[in-house]
Amino acid sequence: MATSIAGYAYGNPSLARSPVSLEEFEKLKQSVLFSDEDERYLRKAGQILSPQVQQILDLWYGFVGSHEHLIRYFSGPDGKPDGQYLAAVRQRFERWVIDTCERPYDQVWLDYQHEIGLRHHRTKKNQTDGVQSEPLIPLRYILALIYPITATIKDFLRKNNDAEEEVEKMHQAWFKSVVLQVTLWSYPFVKDGDF
Q1: Phi/psi at 173 (nearest 5 deg)?
Q2: C-alpha span between 38 and 50 (Å, rounded)
Q3: How far, in Å, CA of 96 to CA of 189, rounded?
Q4: How many domains does the chain contain in total?
Q5: Which residues in 20-47 are b (16+ Cβ under 10 Å) and which e?
Q6: 76 Cβ partners below 8 Å, 6+ apart?
Q7: Helix orientation angle between 164-185 and 83-102, rounded to the nearest 10 degrees
Q8: 195 domain-assigned
Q9: Which helix (H) or strand (E) holds 185?
Q10: Which of 31, 102, 157, 174 is 20 to 30 A from 49, alpha carbon to alpha carbon?
Q11: pTM of the model
Q12: 56: domain CATH number?
């Protein structure tokens, strides 16, 4: 994976502070039953997933690319997929897999989740890569993709030949984290005061 990723701004002080407070985030974690144990299992998952991140993204990109209604959000004005845009997003997506497992879920992490949400919304969509594509990824698809991003990761978690109970704990931790993140990404899509 590239050491310098275009548009990857994790920890950049220029990013907006998340409108979700740490106190509200703690309540959100409680709502999905996310615990210290889940954080430990995410760290373990990261050790297994990191060497496989290319294969994971091959699978996910194959899925998105095989659905016209999804790939259009990465296509140019001519309706054809923009290869450079897809490649740039892919590098950040690879890093997202690792960040999900390895980063502490603190203010810096919370701020970057807000940035990711903005980049899916018309607020900042296309700006990071300077492309002309659909100006918004509808929230319905962001929410719907929770399932494939979660269901497909389990086989990758099995690569370490851990007991199925351990795999399940890593998988549940991943699932909870994805739900947390997608919930945070939805903030720009919600009317003021309704989040």
Answers
A1: -65, -40
A2: 17
A3: 21
A4: 1
A5: beeeebeeebeeeebeeebeebbebbbe
A6: 82, 85, 131, 132, 133
A7: 120
A8: no
A9: helix 164-185
A10: 31
A11: 0.95
A12: 1.10.490.10
Cα 173 from Cα 101, distance rounded (Å): 9
Residue recorded with tokens 């760290």: 43
Which amino acid, 111?
A: D
Which are the contacts of 75, defined by CB distance < 8 A and separation ≥ 6?
81, 82, 133, 134
> Does the residue 194 lie in any domain?
no
Domain that holds residue 132: 22-188
Alpha-carbon distance of 24 to 27, in angstroms, equals 5
Q: Is residue 31 part of a domain?
A: yes
Number of separate helices (H) and strands (E) present in the chain:
10, 0
The one-digit pLDDT tens for each residue of the chain (195 residues) are 446 899 999 999 999 999 999 999 999 999 999 999 999 999 999 999 999 999 999 999 999 999 999 999 999 999 999 999 999 999 999 999 999 999 999 999 999 999 999 999 999 999 999 999 999 999 999 999 999 999 999 999 999 998 999 999 999 999 999 999 999 999 999 999 999
